[in-house]
């Protein structure tokens, strides 16, 4: 097992994200590959870190359904082969990062932070586009995976308008967000969000449909929980 795989990715298992990642330099990507990355994606400050984070994040998204499918791996390969001229030897290195990620199962947020650091804040839209491409090629976009992609977009610092523009390229229909569930815009104040939350809770409260029978009561319970979940998500994002 090579040095970069045995120690260079040890941070995935919970160690500090900073110092150890620096050890990847020169051990993951060869000079020729780093040169191709710099040429195709100008402005990147650390090619090794940038590429590694893309692999980790797309692997994490694929694991939302339980495991990374062959189609999802192929989608990941496609980006590197078509855009960065990767060959079969380079793809073997990708497989090693995939396997390490599966074992470590890291959180998205710190890896996204390193992606932004390595890319000098650039290529956020690219990563979200790759996430949707992989999802569609890998068997479809269900609610858990959409929620995971929403989380990725949030950590990338993309607005809902920016996210929706990318998503709309794939004709996926209206995007459900915590804001849309509460019936407010992204520019709503914290007080407007609190007020909308209280109003929506009252509108969907199961007590309002008790006289209509079990199916209506169950549906109201689901909406009630959805509204609560949306508010908790916004509370976390905005510090409500």
Question: Any overview of this molecule?
Answer:
- The protein has 240 residues and is mostly helical.
- It has two domains: 3-175, TerB-like (Orthogonal Bundle); 179-238, DnaJ domain (Helix Hairpins).
- 65% of the residues lie in helices and 0% in strands.
- It has twelve helices and no strands.
- It is elongated, with a radius of gyration of 21 Å.
- Residues 1-8 and 13-27 have low confidence and may be disordered.
Provide key terms for this protein.
TerB-like, mainly alpha, Helix Hairpins, 240 residues, single chain
Structure at a glance:
The chain is mostly helical and 240 residues long.
Explain the layout of strands and helices:
Layout: H1 3-8, H2 31-40, H3 47-62, H4 70-84, H5 88-104, H6 108-118, H7 124-137, H8 143-156, H9 160-168, H10 178-182, H11 190-204, H12 214-238
Helical content stands at 55-70%
Query: What sort of overall outline do the alpha carbons produce when their principal axes are compared?
Result: elongated
- SS-derived structural category: mainly alpha
The total count of helices amounts to: 12
Number of strands: 0
Q: If you compute it from the alpha carbons, what radius of gyration comes out, rounded to the nearest whole angstrom? A: 21 Å
Strand proportion, as a percent range, falls in under 5%
Under CATH, the topology of the largest domain can be stated as TerB-like
Mean pLDDT, to the nearest integer, reads 78
> How many domain modules?
2
H/E topology pattern: HHHHHHHHHHHH
Spans of at least 5 consecutive residues whose pLDDT stays below 50 are 1-8, 13-27
Largest sheet: none
CATH hierarchy: architecture of the largest domain: Orthogonal Bundle
CATH C-level of the largest domain = Mainly Alpha
